[in-house]
Write a structure and sequence with these properties.
314 residues, 2 domains, 9 helices, 42% helix, disordered N terminus
C-alpha cells in the first residue's frame, strides 16, 4: 500500500482569523489564539466592510453614515487586536473594503498563512460574513487548511486531544491527516486519533447470496485498509503514545461522520476536500459542507491544492 511520506518538521508562522465581532467569530478566535500560541505564530485578524451600506449609496446625503460605519468597524477591530496582543502573541489587524471571502483570502495570501480560522453559525444559520457562501468560497479558494468553528466550540489554553480523521483512502484524506498532525502538534502530545471510513451498503443484498458475499469481502478489505493506513500514519508521525483506532461505519457519509464525532466526543474533525466523499465536486462538496453545518465540534478541511503539492512530492 502506498505510504504517506514523512513531511519536514513544520510550524505555523502565520494564522488568519476572520471576525465580524459575533459569538461565532469569538469562538473561532479562541481556537486561533490557542493554535497560534502553540506554534509561536503571528495572528492576523481580518474584518471586511463595504464603503457603502445597503440603499445608502443611492442617497449622497446619507453617505456620512457609511463612513461612520467604517470608522466603527476600524475602532472595534483595533480594540479587539489590543485586547489579545501580548509580548509573546503578536497580532496584526486588517480592515479591508471588499467581500468577506475575498478579504480573507487576500490576507491569507499576503501573509502566507498556514491556517485560516473562521466561525460558522451552524445548521440553518445565515450571516453576511461567516457562514454559507463565504465559508464555501474561502474553502475553495484557500491554499491552506481552513478550520470552521461553531459558536459553542470555544477552546481553552490547550490544543484538542481527541481528533477524528475521516478517510476514503484518497490522497486528499491523507492531506487532512497530515494537516491535523502539524496544526495540532500530535507528535508532541498524548492524543487520541480515530480513523473513520463510511460505506453505504447497497439495497437488496439479502436477495443475492453471491453479491452479498462479495460485499462482505469488500467490507473486510476496507477494514484491513483502515488498520494499515492507521499504522502508516502512526509510524510516519511518531504516534506511538497516541490512542489510535479505526472505525468502519455504514450509512450516509456526512451523517455518520457527525454521529461518530458526537458518540466519541471528539474535539475536532479533519477531512479532505475531495476524493469519493466529495463525489467529484469542487472542494467543498456536499459531504464536507454538511459536516461543517451540522458538526458540534470544529471541522478542519484541507483544500485540493494541498493534495496537489503532496502528489508532486511523491
Amino acid at each position: 500500500m502506498e505510504s504517506v511520506n514523512q513531511p519536514s518538521a513544520q510550524t505555523l508562522r502565520s494564522i488568519v482569523s476572520a471576525t465580524d465581532f459575533s459569538d461565532p467569530s469569538d469562538a473561532a478566535l479562541s481556537w486561533a489564539m490557542t493554535i497560534a500560541r502553540s506554534h509561536g505564530a503571528q495572528l492576523h485578524l481580518v474584518h471586511a466592510v463595504s464603503r457603502t451600506l445597503p440603499l445608502l449609496s443611492r442617497h449622497d446625503i446619507l453617505s456620512p453614515l457609511a463612513e461612520a460605519s467604517i470608522g466603527d468597524a476600524d475602532r472595534c477591530l483595533a480594540e479587539l487586536a489590543d485586547s489579545i496582543r501580548s509580548p509573546d502573541q503578536p497580532v496584526q489587524s486588517h480592515l479591508l473594503h471588499d467581500r468577506p471571502s475575498v478579504s480573507i483570502l487576500k490576507v491569507a495570501d499576503w501573509e502566507r498563512a498556514g491556517l485560516i480560522v473562521m466561525g460558522t453559525r451552524g445548521e440553518g444559520g445565515v450571516d453576511d460574513l461567516m457562514v454559507g457562501s463565504t465559508t464555501e468560497r474561502v474553502a475553495e479558494g484557500a491554499s491552506c487548511p481552513v478550520l470552521s468553528v461553531g459558536p459553542k466550540a470555544r477552546l481553552g489554553a490547550s490544543l484538542p486531544l481527541r481528533i477524528l480523521v475521516a478517510t476514503d483512502f484518497s490522497i486528499e484524506a491523507d492531506a487532512a491527516a497530515i494537516a491535523a498532525q502539524e496544526i495540532f502538534r500530535v507528535h508532541e502530545r498524548d492524543v487520541s486519533i480515530l480513523l473513520l471510513s463510511v460505506l453505504h451498503t447497497p439495497k437488496g443484498l439479502d436477495k443475492d447470496i453471491a453479491v452479498s458475499q462479495l460485499w462482505g469481502e469488500y467490507v473486510a478489505e476496507c477494514r484491513a485498509l483502515l488498520k494499515e493506513r492507521l499504522a502508516v500514519l502512526s509510524n510516519t508521525f511518531g504516534l506511538d503514545g497516541a490512542a489510535a483506532r479505526v472505525l468502519l461505519r455504514d450509512g450516509i457519509p456526512a451523517a455518520e461522520i457527525v454521529r461518530a464525532a458526537n458518540q466519541e466526543e471528539v474535539d475536532v474533525i479533519a477531512l479532505g476536500g475531495r476524493g469519493s466523499f466529495a463525489a467529484g465536486r469542487e472542494f467543498l462538496g456536499s459531504v464536507a459542507k454538511r459536516v461543517i453545518q451540522t458538526a458540534s465540534c470544529p471541522v478542519l478541511s484541507v483544500p485540493s491544492l494541498i493534495s496537489k503539492r503532496m502528489r508532486n512530492l511523491r
